[in-house]
Amino acid sequence: MNNTRLGISTFCYPYAVGMDGFEPEKKKNAFDLVDQAVKLQIPVLQIADNYPLHQFTEQKLEQLDRYAMERQITLEIGTRGIRPGNLAAYVHIAEKLHAQLLRVVIDLGEDQPSADESVARIHQVLPMLKEKKIILGIENHDRFPSHVFAKMVKELDSPYVGIVLDTVNSFACEENTDQVLDKLAPYTVNFHMKDFRIDRVPNAMGLLVTGTIAGEGRLNFPKILERLRREAKTDFSTIIELWMQPEESIEETLEKENCWVEQSVANIKRMLGENHWFLK
Known about the structure:
Blueprint: E1 4-9, H1 14-17, H2 30-40, E2 44-47, H3 58-70, E3 74-80, H4 84-96, E4 101-105, H5 115-132, E5 135-139, H6 146-156, E6 161-166, H7 177-184, E7 188-193, E8 196-200, E9 207-211, H8 221-231, E10 236-240, H9 250-272, H10 276-279
Parallel strand pairs: 1-2, 1-10, 2-3, 3-4, 4-5, 5-6, 6-7, 7-10
Antiparallel strand pairs: 8-9
Helix pairs in contact: 4-5, 5-6, 6-7
């Protein structure tokens, strides 16, 4: 049976770290997020593509690495776009931060390579991944169905390439969670725990998929986790991500975001009780 460790992501705090159209006066930085992980008593922080680590100097990366290690927080990192130059840059960042997982979303703006082109690009960085012992996790994002992601990983045929399994993204390809697990569970190296609900719009003419606090939506988290512990490629991290709609003001939005994260972590810990293989 595989083991897993709980973490939060910069996508737990998309408003606090800042995004297009939402700029808080004081943004949370990577050091603040390490402190949040300590406060929440969870061991992993995933710094994803909504936080630009490539803008850090070498000195600042060393400071962040030291800051996280002193507080016993394991870092994982992420980027968007798979041009070999970008992947190589982020492999270097992962090495500097002692991050063993580099999570990637394939598409970046108009750069949307085919599955074959994606395999060819990733193949160029396989020697670097092997040398640095860093696992590249390809997230099942919106454009490809899950069987295509499975085929890509199978063709790359490397212990240093796997799948970041997200529980909601593949809805865009009309695939539910069980269908995604059937195809991608054997290749999973990281699990994005993103809870959701499905409601009819007020006039009943359509359905709306929205995010919820983890543990309060439709996602059967214990069932998914049990399956991944049996079927995943290796031990994996379980990272909470949240889709939260903003409130009318910046202050209300940031307060709501913080409450959602705290309640999500509390819910997951309560669900799992004394399963210490998970919480350590």
